[in-house]
Amino acid sequence: MAAFKELVFSGVQPTGNLHLGNYLGAIKRFVEMQARDAQCLYCVVDMHAITLWQDPEALRGQIREVTAAFLAAGIDPKKSIVFNQSQVPQHAELAWIFNCVARLGWLNRMTQFKDKAGKDRENASIGLYDYPVLMAADILAYRATHVPVGEDQKQHLELTRDIAQKFNTDFGDSIRAHGHGDGFFPLTEPLIGGPAARVMSLRDGSKKMSKSDPSDNSRINLTDDSDLIAQKVRKAKTDPDALPSETEGLKGRPEADNLVGIFAALSETTREAVLQQYGGAQFSAFKGALVDLAVEKLAPINAEMKRLSADPAHIDAVLADGAERAEAIAAPTLDAVKDIVGFVRRGPRLSAVG
Ligand code: TYM
């Protein structure tokens, strides 16, 4: 691997209904990260997806669809490493070791598990509970320094840092004895930000835009055509007042705040700049401008996703190539981890990990 200053890792679940929140909060930012002096790895996290039941045939299609969305949005699979998680066995291997580092009390605090398990917690899969540990393994198998995500992943990234820190402390002597200095895993930096770190439902400004919302009108899907995008934006819930001219005036107006945030993210500017232009405008006018902007930005992605989806063999080849390159980074990490932990393993010691 060429020596990059940063290693960026992020993942998206292939659970269907990829939406504007996934795009603005994550995928669009993945594309921007490619301009940095960084090796970027973008992973379709299929093992995370099965923590909730997935129909096998549908899952295969969804893995290819997320891959198509990555490529259509501008991720270059030659520059970045694009792959699906299950093709790189080191994720699951490291997750097991981390299961023995992470504490029950830490996982008990995870709010996403509580949300997803709902009232019937006894019936949730163990995988759903263990989800954040696998996520830490995803990131740390590559010793990633930066992880761009939406705001909902903040707690999981804090857990990743806790696991890295505890591993570094628990195995400190062994880490030093194996020549890795004072810490083996980095304390990964979450990159959460921009005007769309938390895109809200178009029907209810107090709820996150989500793949699992039963109302399709609550989200703009990346597969929606221009007419549907226009329809959903026009139907989006608003309040009766005109737009304020300063962000202060968005307080207590979650739906207005959300639409202004979406506009800012799509046009790569800030809420302040949007309000300078549209302060005083009625929602009917603002929504018209938002429809034009959303269609201008999303229609080409939609068209390219369709084009790519017609050739699943090409997508599978991208994933296979990415998996090979990902494994070339993760395998030496796992070899080093096994030595640090005290496992006996076959094969010569790989010395690629410094
Ligand atoms: P997932 O598939 O739920 O979401 C993918 C990315 O989209 C972001 N996101 C949003 N951003 C803004 N507004 C929203 N309404 C919104 N909804 C989703 C998410 O924050 C995420 O960045 N656990 C991760 C997948 C994962 C991962 C990882 C991420 C697995 N391993 C390692 C980073 C690093 C998830 O559930 O993504």
Automatic annotation (TrEMBL):
Any one cellular-component term (Gene Ontology): cytosol
Motif ('KMSKS' region): 208-212
Subcellular location: Cytoplasm
Signal peptide: none
Keyword Protein biosynthesis in annotation: yes
InterPro entries recorded: aa-tRNA-synth_I_CS, aa-tRNA-synth_Ic, Rossmann-like_a/b/a_fold, Trp-tRNA-ligase, Trp-tRNA-ligase_bac-type, Trp-tRNA_synthetase
Disordered as annotated region, ranges: 203-222
EC number(s) given by UniProt: 6.1.1.2
Family matches, as Pfam families: tRNA-synt_1b (PF00579)
Biological processes annotated in GO: tryptophanyl-tRNA aminoacylation
Enzyme class: ligase
Keywords: Aminoacyl-tRNA synthetase, ATP-binding, Cytoplasm, Ligase, Nucleotide-binding, Protein biosynthesis
Chain segments annotated as transmembrane: none
Basic and acidic residues bias spans: 204-216
Position of sequence motif 'HIGH' region: 14-22
Positions bound to ATP: Q13, P14, T15, G21, N22, G150, E151, D152, V199, K208, M209, S210, K211, S212
Origin superkingdom: Bacteria
PANTHER family: TRYPTOPHAN--TRNA LIGASE, MITOCHONDRIAL (PTHR43766:SF1)
Assembly and binders: Homodimer.
Protein function: Catalyzes the attachment of tryptophan to tRNA(Trp).
Protein's name according to its UniProt entry: Tryptophan--tRNA ligase
